[in-house]
Design a protein that fits this description.
two-stranded antiparallel sheet; single chain; 179 residues; mainly alpha; rod-shaped
């Protein structure tokens, strides 16, 4: 058997052991080279990501601002929808009241005509129609007619105001839909 003396080690090794050690060193060196390549590639990737990070942070900040604006717009839209529903309910109520008012005015007008066409007895209380009774009832009908007319004017004004508010809120809603 041949033995080889390795300087600096102080041991004598056999050629098969030397070959095995060289193989082990080669394998370890290949693994280390592969690790080095992988770590170099990873280092480059990290450097690239570090260079991209400020731009990504700026994009994120911009997106957060847009999200905040979108949430505010959504909240505003919900608020507008709620107000629109309320206004539309008020509009329907006022229109219904106006119809009732018109019907009351028509009924009063019919009573007034019946009263003027009445003969010697009151068509409503069946008592004799004296000049005093006629005057009091005509005055009552006139006062009631004026009250109904004023109420009608008030309702019509309220309806116009509500319609203007509905139009304004719809325009605001359309503006928000474009955002």
């Amino acid at each position: 058997h041949q033995y080889m003396y390795l300087s600096g080690i102080g041991n004598i090794m056999r050629p098969a052991a030397i070959k095995a050690a060289q193989q082990e060193i080669s394998t370890e060196q290949a693994r280390l080279n592969a690790d080095f390549k992988n770590l170099s590639a990873e280092s480059k990737r990290i450097t690239t990501l570090q260079n991209e990070l400020p731009g990504l942070e700026q994009t994120l900040t911009g997106l957060k601002e847009k999200l905040t604006q979108a949430e505010a717009a959504l909240n505003k839209r919900e608020e507008i929808q709620s107000k629109l529903e309320d206004l539309q309910n008020r509009f329907s109520t006022k229109q219904s009241e106006l119809k009732q008012n018109n019907l009351a005015y028509k009924n009063l007008r019919d009573k007034y005509q019946d009263f003027h066409q009445a003969g010697p007895t009151c068509p409503f209380c069946n008592q004799p129609l004296t000049p005093d009774h006629r005057e009091k009832y005509e005055q009552h009908l006139t006062i009631e007619g004026n009250r109904i007319k004023e109420q009608k004017q008030t309702l019509e004004t309220e309806i116009i105001v509500i319609q203007a508010e509905i139009k304004d809120y719809r325009e605001q809603n359309q503006h928000l839909n474009r955002i």
